[in-house]
Design brief:
Helix content: 25-40%
Largest sheet: 6 strands, antiparallel
Order of helices and strands: HHHEEHHEEEHEEEEEEEEEEEEEH
Oligomer: single chain
Length: 409
Amino acid sequence: MSDSKKEISLGKRVFRILSGFEIAVVCLSLLFVLTFFGTIEQKWFGLWATIHKYFDIESIYVLPSRGDGKLIFFPLPGAYWVIVVLGINMFLGAIIRARKGWKKFGVLLSHCAILFMLIAGAVSSVTKEEGHMRVLQGEQSDYAQKLFKHDIEIFQYDENGAREQPVIVRSKHIKTLGPKDKLNATFEKFDFTLQVDHFLPVAELALDSPSSPAPEGVEVVDGFFLAETEKNIQQEEANTPGCYVTVKDKSGGPIQRLVLWAGNPYPVSFTHEGKRYGVTYLMEVWPMPFMVELHKTIGEDHPGTSIPRWFQSNITKIDGKQREDYKIIMNEPARHGGYTLYQAGYTKAAEGETPSSTFAVVKNPSDRWPEYALYASTFGLLIHFITMLFRFTGGSRPKKLKTTESSVS
Protein backbone atom coordinates (compact mmCIF):
# COMPACT_ATOMS: atom_id res chain seq x y z
CA MET A 1 0.00 0.00 0.00
CA SER A 2 1.41 3.43 -0.97
CA ASP A 3 2.16 6.14 1.63
CA SER A 4 -0.64 8.34 0.27
CA LYS A 5 -3.20 5.70 1.16
CA LYS A 6 -1.95 5.06 4.67
CA GLU A 7 -4.40 5.95 7.41
CA ILE A 8 -3.53 9.01 9.50
CA SER A 9 -2.96 8.15 13.15
CA LEU A 10 -5.29 9.45 15.87
CA GLY A 11 -2.53 11.59 17.34
CA LYS A 12 -1.92 13.37 14.03
CA ARG A 13 -5.64 13.96 13.58
CA VAL A 14 -5.90 15.54 17.02
CA PHE A 15 -2.80 17.64 16.30
CA ARG A 16 -4.26 18.88 12.99
CA ILE A 17 -7.54 19.82 14.67
CA LEU A 18 -5.90 21.64 17.59
CA SER A 19 -3.48 23.49 15.30
CA GLY A 20 -6.06 24.24 12.62
CA PHE A 21 -6.96 27.67 11.36
CA GLU A 22 -10.63 26.97 12.12
CA ILE A 23 -10.07 26.98 15.90
CA ALA A 24 -8.22 30.30 15.66
CA VAL A 25 -11.12 31.88 13.76
CA VAL A 26 -13.67 30.57 16.29
CA CYS A 27 -11.62 31.80 19.29
CA LEU A 28 -11.06 35.26 17.82
CA SER A 29 -14.76 35.52 16.94
CA LEU A 30 -15.73 34.54 20.49
CA LEU A 31 -13.36 37.11 21.97
CA PHE A 32 -14.93 39.78 19.77
CA VAL A 33 -18.44 38.80 20.91
CA LEU A 34 -17.41 38.61 24.59
CA THR A 35 -15.74 42.02 24.43
CA PHE A 36 -18.79 43.48 22.67
CA PHE A 37 -21.30 42.24 25.25
CA GLY A 38 -18.94 43.01 28.15
CA THR A 39 -18.71 46.61 26.94
CA ILE A 40 -22.50 46.84 26.82
CA GLU A 41 -22.97 45.18 30.20
CA GLN A 42 -20.61 47.47 32.11
CA LYS A 43 -23.25 50.19 31.68
CA TRP A 44 -25.37 48.36 34.28
CA PHE A 45 -22.84 46.53 36.44
CA GLY A 46 -19.69 48.65 36.35
CA LEU A 47 -16.22 48.00 34.94
CA TRP A 48 -14.77 45.93 37.79
CA ALA A 49 -17.69 43.50 38.03
CA THR A 50 -17.88 43.08 34.25
CA ILE A 51 -14.16 42.37 33.87
CA HIS A 52 -14.30 39.72 36.57
CA LYS A 53 -17.45 38.19 35.11
CA TYR A 54 -16.10 37.87 31.57
CA PHE A 55 -12.33 37.47 32.04
CA ASP A 56 -11.83 35.83 35.44
CA ILE A 57 -10.21 32.39 35.64
CA GLU A 58 -13.23 31.13 37.61
CA SER A 59 -15.69 32.11 34.84
CA ILE A 60 -16.12 28.86 32.90
CA TYR A 61 -19.07 30.38 31.08
CA VAL A 62 -20.90 33.72 31.13
CA LEU A 63 -24.50 34.79 30.62
CA PRO A 64 -24.67 38.25 29.00
CA SER A 65 -27.52 40.07 30.70
CA ARG A 66 -29.15 43.46 31.20
CA GLY A 67 -29.53 45.43 34.38
CA ASP A 68 -32.94 43.88 35.04
CA GLY A 69 -31.44 40.39 34.90
CA LYS A 70 -32.83 39.47 31.47
CA LEU A 71 -30.42 37.66 29.14
CA ILE A 72 -29.32 39.52 26.01
CA PHE A 73 -27.48 36.55 24.46
CA PHE A 74 -27.10 32.81 24.93
CA PRO A 75 -24.35 31.40 27.22
CA LEU A 76 -20.77 31.94 26.08
CA PRO A 77 -17.49 30.41 27.27
CA GLY A 78 -15.43 32.57 29.63
CA ALA A 79 -12.85 34.74 27.88
CA TYR A 80 -9.98 33.41 30.02
CA TRP A 81 -10.51 29.86 28.76
CA VAL A 82 -11.05 31.01 25.18
CA ILE A 83 -7.63 32.67 25.40
CA VAL A 84 -6.14 29.43 26.79
CA VAL A 85 -7.46 27.48 23.78
CA LEU A 86 -6.24 30.22 21.42
CA GLY A 87 -2.78 30.07 23.03
CA ILE A 88 -2.57 26.29 22.53
CA ASN A 89 -3.77 26.67 18.94
CA MET A 90 -1.16 29.36 18.21
CA PHE A 91 1.66 27.35 19.75
CA LEU A 92 0.81 24.20 17.77
CA GLY A 93 -0.25 25.84 14.51
CA ALA A 94 1.63 29.11 14.20
CA ILE A 95 4.91 27.91 15.73
CA ILE A 96 5.24 24.08 15.73
CA ARG A 97 3.38 23.37 12.48
CA ALA A 98 4.42 26.54 10.64
CA ARG A 99 7.09 26.43 7.95
CA LYS A 100 10.55 27.34 9.20
CA GLY A 101 13.39 29.18 7.51
CA TRP A 102 14.88 32.64 7.20
CA LYS A 103 12.17 33.70 4.76
CA LYS A 104 9.54 32.99 7.45
CA PHE A 105 11.52 34.50 10.33
CA GLY A 106 9.43 37.70 10.51
CA VAL A 107 6.10 35.87 10.62
CA LEU A 108 7.41 33.37 13.17
CA LEU A 109 8.67 36.21 15.40
CA SER A 110 5.26 37.93 15.23
CA HIS A 111 3.47 34.70 16.18
CA CYS A 112 5.83 34.19 19.13
CA ALA A 113 5.21 37.78 20.27
CA ILE A 114 1.41 37.36 20.17
CA LEU A 115 1.70 34.10 22.11
CA PHE A 116 3.93 35.87 24.64
CA MET A 117 1.22 38.54 25.02
CA LEU A 118 -1.37 35.86 25.83
CA ILE A 119 1.00 34.32 28.39
CA ALA A 120 1.46 37.78 29.95
CA GLY A 121 -2.29 38.01 30.52
CA ALA A 122 -2.37 34.59 32.20
CA VAL A 123 0.58 35.45 34.46
CA SER A 124 -1.05 38.77 35.38
CA SER A 125 -4.37 37.16 36.36
CA VAL A 126 -2.63 34.71 38.69
CA THR A 127 0.19 36.76 40.26
CA LYS A 128 -0.97 40.38 40.18
CA GLU A 129 -1.46 42.15 43.52
CA GLU A 130 -3.55 45.31 43.88
CA GLY A 131 -4.16 47.84 46.61
CA HIS A 132 -4.94 51.48 47.33
CA MET A 133 -2.71 54.06 48.98
CA ARG A 134 -4.23 57.32 50.27
CA VAL A 135 -1.82 60.15 51.07
CA LEU A 136 -2.63 63.60 52.43
CA GLN A 137 -0.93 66.55 50.76
CA GLY A 138 2.32 67.32 52.55
CA GLU A 139 2.50 63.88 54.19
CA GLN A 140 4.15 60.52 53.49
CA SER A 141 3.05 56.90 53.29
CA ASP A 142 4.92 53.61 52.98
CA TYR A 143 2.01 51.18 52.79
CA ALA A 144 -1.10 50.40 50.76
CA GLN A 145 -4.22 48.42 51.65
CA LYS A 146 -5.59 45.51 49.66
CA LEU A 147 -9.18 46.38 48.86
CA PHE A 148 -10.70 42.93 48.82
CA LYS A 149 -8.69 41.30 51.62
CA HIS A 150 -9.61 41.98 55.24
CA ASP A 151 -7.51 40.75 58.18
CA ILE A 152 -8.28 40.51 61.87
CA GLU A 153 -5.53 42.10 63.97
CA ILE A 154 -5.20 41.49 67.72
CA PHE A 155 -2.85 43.67 69.74
CA GLN A 156 -2.10 44.67 73.31
CA TYR A 157 -2.00 48.24 74.58
CA ASP A 158 1.11 49.22 76.52
CA GLU A 159 1.16 51.32 79.70
CA ASN A 160 0.96 54.53 77.65
CA GLY A 161 -2.02 53.34 75.63
CA ALA A 162 0.00 52.74 72.43
CA ARG A 163 -0.53 49.64 70.32
CA GLU A 164 2.09 46.93 70.44
CA GLN A 165 2.96 44.66 67.48
CA PRO A 166 -0.23 42.80 66.45
CA VAL A 167 -0.84 39.19 65.54
CA ILE A 168 -2.91 38.63 62.42
CA VAL A 169 -5.61 36.24 61.24
CA ARG A 170 -5.35 36.39 57.46
CA SER A 171 -8.21 37.05 55.08
CA LYS A 172 -7.60 33.83 53.15
CA HIS A 173 -8.58 31.80 56.24
CA ILE A 174 -11.62 33.92 57.10
CA LYS A 175 -13.13 34.09 53.59
CA THR A 176 -13.45 30.31 53.39
CA LEU A 177 -15.92 30.24 56.29
CA GLY A 178 -19.59 29.58 55.69
CA PRO A 179 -22.36 31.06 57.87
CA LYS A 180 -22.18 28.06 60.24
CA ASP A 181 -18.42 27.39 60.10
CA LYS A 182 -15.98 28.27 62.87
CA LEU A 183 -12.29 29.15 62.79
CA ASN A 184 -10.16 28.68 65.91
CA ALA A 185 -6.95 30.73 66.00
CA THR A 186 -4.20 30.28 68.58
CA PHE A 187 -1.27 32.62 69.24
CA GLU A 188 2.13 32.05 70.82
CA LYS A 189 2.20 35.66 71.97
CA PHE A 190 -1.10 35.56 73.91
CA ASP A 191 -2.57 33.18 76.49
CA PHE A 192 -6.01 33.20 74.86
CA THR A 193 -7.54 31.96 71.61
CA LEU A 194 -9.95 33.46 69.10
CA GLN A 195 -12.99 31.76 67.62
CA VAL A 196 -14.35 33.37 64.43
CA ASP A 197 -17.90 32.45 63.38
CA HIS A 198 -21.00 33.71 61.55
CA PHE A 199 -18.90 35.22 58.78
CA LEU A 200 -20.88 37.36 56.30
CA PRO A 201 -19.06 38.43 53.09
CA VAL A 202 -21.34 41.47 52.65
CA ALA A 203 -22.77 43.01 55.82
CA GLU A 204 -23.59 46.19 57.72
CA LEU A 205 -23.19 46.95 61.41
CA ALA A 206 -26.62 47.85 62.79
CA LEU A 207 -27.81 49.20 66.13
CA ASP A 208 -30.46 47.19 67.96
CA SER A 209 -33.10 49.74 68.89
CA PRO A 210 -36.90 49.84 69.38
CA SER A 211 -37.29 51.48 65.97
CA SER A 212 -35.04 48.96 64.17
CA PRO A 213 -34.74 45.79 66.27
CA ALA A 214 -32.54 42.89 65.29
CA PRO A 215 -34.32 40.16 63.29
CA GLU A 216 -35.28 37.02 65.16
CA GLY A 217 -32.37 34.64 65.55
CA VAL A 218 -29.70 37.29 64.92
CA GLU A 219 -27.19 37.67 67.74
CA VAL A 220 -26.81 41.07 69.41
CA VAL A 221 -23.51 42.00 71.07
CA ASP A 222 -23.29 45.19 73.17
CA GLY A 223 -26.33 46.58 71.37
CA PHE A 224 -25.04 45.89 67.85
CA PHE A 225 -25.60 43.13 65.29
CA LEU A 226 -24.59 42.25 61.74
CA ALA A 227 -27.20 42.61 59.01
CA GLU A 228 -26.57 40.76 55.76
CA THR A 229 -26.94 43.01 52.71
CA GLU A 230 -27.04 42.62 48.95
CA LYS A 231 -23.75 42.73 47.08
CA ASN A 232 -22.95 46.04 45.42
CA ILE A 233 -22.08 45.05 41.85
CA GLN A 234 -21.28 48.61 40.81
CA GLN A 235 -18.59 49.20 43.45
CA GLU A 236 -16.88 46.06 44.68
CA GLU A 237 -14.88 48.01 47.28
CA ALA A 238 -18.15 49.04 48.95
CA ASN A 239 -18.85 45.41 49.95
CA THR A 240 -17.64 45.08 53.54
CA PRO A 241 -17.60 41.75 55.41
CA GLY A 242 -18.34 41.13 59.07
CA CYS A 243 -18.13 38.34 61.63
CA TYR A 244 -18.54 37.49 65.31
CA VAL A 245 -15.58 36.63 67.51
CA THR A 246 -15.31 34.84 70.86
CA VAL A 247 -12.18 35.38 72.93
CA LYS A 248 -11.48 32.25 75.03
CA ASP A 249 -9.01 31.47 77.79
CA LYS A 250 -6.71 28.43 77.82
CA SER A 251 -9.43 26.20 79.24
CA GLY A 252 -11.85 27.22 76.50
CA GLY A 253 -14.00 29.46 78.69
CA PRO A 254 -15.37 32.63 77.05
CA ILE A 255 -13.70 35.91 77.98
CA GLN A 256 -15.48 38.30 75.65
CA ARG A 257 -17.90 38.18 72.72
CA LEU A 258 -17.22 40.74 69.96
CA VAL A 259 -18.85 41.78 66.72
CA LEU A 260 -16.44 42.91 63.99
CA TRP A 261 -17.28 44.82 60.83
CA ALA A 262 -14.70 45.81 58.20
CA GLY A 263 -16.30 49.23 57.79
CA ASN A 264 -15.48 50.22 61.37
CA PRO A 265 -12.00 51.80 61.51
CA TYR A 266 -11.87 51.74 65.31
CA PRO A 267 -10.69 48.78 67.40
CA VAL A 268 -13.01 46.82 69.67
CA SER A 269 -11.35 46.33 73.03
CA PHE A 270 -11.51 43.84 75.89
CA THR A 271 -9.61 43.17 79.13
CA HIS A 272 -7.96 39.92 80.20
CA GLU A 273 -5.97 39.40 83.43
CA GLY A 274 -5.53 43.12 83.93
CA LYS A 275 -4.26 43.76 80.41
CA ARG A 276 -6.14 45.67 77.72
CA TYR A 277 -6.35 44.37 74.17
CA GLY A 278 -7.79 45.64 70.90
CA VAL A 279 -9.20 43.84 67.85
CA THR A 280 -9.69 45.34 64.39
CA TYR A 281 -11.09 43.96 61.15
CA LEU A 282 -9.64 46.08 58.36
CA MET A 283 -8.16 45.85 54.88
CA GLU A 284 -4.88 43.98 54.76
CA VAL A 285 -1.87 46.26 55.19
CA TRP A 286 0.58 45.97 52.29
CA PRO A 287 4.02 47.43 53.17
CA MET A 288 5.88 49.17 50.33
CA PRO A 289 9.68 49.03 49.89
CA PHE A 290 9.68 52.80 49.37
CA MET A 291 8.03 55.97 50.70
CA VAL A 292 5.66 58.23 48.78
CA GLU A 293 5.57 61.92 49.69
CA LEU A 294 2.70 63.93 48.20
CA HIS A 295 3.57 67.57 47.43
CA LYS A 296 0.56 68.69 45.42
CA THR A 297 -2.75 67.23 44.23
CA ILE A 298 -4.77 69.11 41.62
CA GLY A 299 -7.72 68.26 39.39
CA GLU A 300 -10.82 69.37 37.54
CA ASP A 301 -14.35 67.98 37.33
CA HIS A 302 -16.61 67.81 34.32
CA PRO A 303 -18.71 70.99 34.19
CA GLY A 304 -21.76 70.76 36.43
CA THR A 305 -20.77 67.37 37.90
CA SER A 306 -18.55 65.90 40.62
CA ILE A 307 -17.01 63.41 38.16
CA PRO A 308 -13.26 63.99 37.77
CA ARG A 309 -12.23 65.06 34.26
CA TRP A 310 -8.54 65.28 35.03
CA PHE A 311 -6.34 65.10 38.12
CA GLN A 312 -2.64 64.97 38.89
CA SER A 313 -0.32 64.32 41.82
CA ASN A 314 3.21 65.64 42.24
CA ILE A 315 5.10 63.17 44.41
CA THR A 316 8.59 62.25 45.53
CA LYS A 317 9.48 58.58 45.73
CA ILE A 318 11.95 57.97 48.59
CA ASP A 319 13.97 54.74 48.53
CA GLY A 320 16.62 54.95 51.21
CA LYS A 321 18.76 57.95 50.30
CA GLN A 322 17.48 58.02 46.73
CA ARG A 323 14.78 60.58 45.90
CA GLU A 324 12.95 60.84 42.58
CA ASP A 325 10.19 63.25 41.56
CA TYR A 326 7.18 62.06 39.55
CA LYS A 327 4.05 63.59 38.08
CA ILE A 328 1.27 60.99 38.14
CA ILE A 329 -1.62 61.76 35.81
CA MET A 330 -4.72 59.64 35.12
CA ASN A 331 -3.13 57.69 32.24
CA GLU A 332 0.52 58.25 33.10
CA PRO A 333 1.54 56.10 36.10
CA ALA A 334 4.84 55.99 37.99
CA ARG A 335 6.85 52.75 38.00
CA HIS A 336 9.52 51.65 40.45
CA GLY A 337 10.98 48.26 41.40
CA GLY A 338 8.12 46.20 39.98
CA TYR A 339 5.42 48.45 41.49
CA THR A 340 3.15 50.75 39.46
CA LEU A 341 1.27 53.70 40.98
CA TYR A 342 -1.81 54.91 39.09
CA GLN A 343 -3.79 58.04 39.90
CA ALA A 344 -7.07 56.53 41.14
CA GLY A 345 -8.71 59.56 42.74
CA TYR A 346 -8.35 62.79 44.60
CA THR A 347 -10.32 64.77 47.14
CA LYS A 348 -10.73 68.52 47.06
CA ALA A 349 -10.16 70.25 50.34
CA ALA A 350 -12.87 72.25 51.98
CA GLU A 351 -11.82 75.23 54.04
CA GLY A 352 -9.54 74.09 56.85
CA GLU A 353 -9.08 70.58 55.39
CA THR A 354 -6.15 68.96 53.61
CA PRO A 355 -6.52 67.61 50.04
CA SER A 356 -5.42 64.06 49.33
CA SER A 357 -4.65 61.66 46.48
CA THR A 358 -5.51 57.99 46.20
CA PHE A 359 -3.14 55.79 44.22
CA ALA A 360 -3.92 52.35 42.86
CA VAL A 361 -0.81 50.28 43.59
CA VAL A 362 -0.21 47.28 41.36
CA LYS A 363 2.59 44.72 41.58
CA ASN A 364 2.54 42.76 38.36
CA PRO A 365 5.62 40.88 37.08
CA SER A 366 4.14 40.87 33.57
CA ASP A 367 3.21 44.57 33.57
CA ARG A 368 5.45 45.51 30.61
CA TRP A 369 5.30 42.17 28.77
CA PRO A 370 2.46 43.21 26.41
CA GLU A 371 4.48 46.31 25.48
CA TYR A 372 7.56 44.22 24.70
CA ALA A 373 5.39 41.76 22.74
CA LEU A 374 3.96 44.62 20.69
CA TYR A 375 7.45 45.85 19.80
CA ALA A 376 8.57 42.34 18.83
CA SER A 377 5.45 41.72 16.75
CA THR A 378 5.86 45.04 14.93
CA PHE A 379 9.52 44.28 14.26
CA GLY A 380 8.65 40.80 12.96
CA LEU A 381 5.97 42.11 10.61
CA LEU A 382 8.34 44.83 9.38
CA ILE A 383 10.96 42.17 8.55
CA HIS A 384 8.32 40.09 6.76
CA PHE A 385 7.07 43.04 4.67
CA ILE A 386 10.61 44.08 3.73
CA THR A 387 11.45 40.49 2.75
CA MET A 388 8.32 40.21 0.61
CA LEU A 389 9.01 43.61 -0.99
CA PHE A 390 12.57 42.56 -1.81
CA ARG A 391 11.38 39.28 -3.33
CA PHE A 392 8.78 41.13 -5.39
CA THR A 393 11.06 43.87 -6.70
CA GLY A 394 14.37 42.03 -6.92
CA GLY A 395 13.53 38.37 -7.08
CA SER A 396 10.65 37.92 -9.48
CA ARG A 397 11.80 40.29 -12.28
CA PRO A 398 15.00 38.45 -13.34
CA LYS A 399 13.06 35.19 -13.63
CA LYS A 400 10.63 36.91 -15.96
CA LEU A 401 13.47 38.22 -18.14
CA LYS A 402 15.06 34.76 -18.35
CA THR A 403 11.83 33.28 -19.56
CA THR A 404 11.51 35.95 -22.21
CA GLU A 405 15.07 35.41 -23.46
CA SER A 406 14.65 31.64 -23.75
CA SER A 407 11.46 32.02 -25.73
CA VAL A 408 13.14 34.39 -28.19
CA SER A 409 16.06 32.06 -28.74
